[in-house]
Amino acid sequence: MDPKVLYLLARFRPLTSWSGAGILLAAAVTIREMGIDSLNWTLFAAAAAIVVLLQYVAHPLNDIVDYPVDKQANIGGTGRHKPLLSGLATIKDFKAISAVVLALALTLTAYVASALPFALVFGAVGFFTLFAYNLKPFALSYKPFSEVLVGGVSNLVMILGVSYVLAGQVLLAAGIVGAIHALMSTSMHCSYFAMDYQSDAWGSKKSTIVTWPYGPWEALYPAIGLGATAAIGLFSVTSLGFTPLVAAVAFALLLFLGTRIAITRQQYHLTHGQYYMCPVEDPSKVVPATLTAWGAASGSMRKALVAQMNVIILSAIVFAVALVVV
């Protein structure tokens, strides 16, 4: 196996926009609510490492599960690199990497639980999400609304859990911030599904978008977030100051970008429809108009998706500073 596979599997932009942003927000909201002097930073570091390790190991596990579908996807055209497809690594390599990372995550979980047994509840949700999304009997990545579990529930529980480990108690404010981040993450997850819409349909991967292609799913979750955070800010129902309005601005940008992605996908769908079998055995010999059009559409959606990730990362930084300073 080429050593750079370990770097490629990190996928730093999504890792930063999900785990990195969530850890930062959990720390910021806990500092705001509890002050900084009494917080347990050693346990926090362990909890943060668990979060990063679980998202990291999700990448090789998902690549193993999605290998038949990824062979038909526009991976290169969307700026991604899949080591299984390029030959830099094998499924056996990915299983070995996953085993080592999971062992590290379990060791750190035992360490945190030895000090805070209730933290096991949050950890259990994280591990369950990882396995239920990727592996049988659940294999939720092949079913509708899996974005709610992975983007929503797991990110909400992540911020609640990291905040709990840091403070030693569950904070309502952490739940509110977690819900905001969860909606942002769910929005981004829907955009990933949109970018892979056609290849998922070829591989019978029944994501929400494949199952109901005319729904504006990419715009739904940021629209919910925009309404909710604007209401929180306008009615001052939390102790979070004006920071919900910062999130509302981020949701407005996510809504704009999500709408662009939804329009691009639906224009493609109206022109070409869904193909539940790849229309060509060897795309290198024959390139139907469907494949060419899908390459252009998915590449365009990728640009908007990257912009969404950047919005989430930047808003988390601004949100965190506002939580701590204002």
Give keywords:
326 residues, 76% helix
Molecular structure report:
This protein is mainly alpha-helical and 326 residues long. The chain has one domain (16-325). The protein has 13 helices and no strands. The chain has helices at residues 4-10, 12-34, 41-70, 83-86, 91-115, 119-134, 146-167, 172-195, 197-202, 208-211, 217-235, 243-272, 289-325. Helix 2 runs parallel beside helix 13. The radius of gyration is 20 Å and the shape is globular. The mean pLDDT is 88.
What is the radius of gyration? 20 Å
Overall residue-averaged pLDDT value: 88
User: Class by helix and strand content?
Assistant: mainly alpha
Shape: globular
Report the sheet with the most strands, covering strand number, pairing sense and barrel closure.
Answer: none
Quaternary structure annotation: single chain
Q: Which ranges are low-confidence, i.e. pLDDT below 50, for 5 or more consecutive residues? A: none
H-E string: HHHHHHHHHHHHH
Number of domains: 1
Helix content range of the residues, please? Answer: over 70%
Give the percentage of residues in beta strands: under 5%
User: What is the number of strand segments?
Assistant: 0
Alpha-carbon distance between the two ends: 49 Å
The number of helical elements comes to: 13
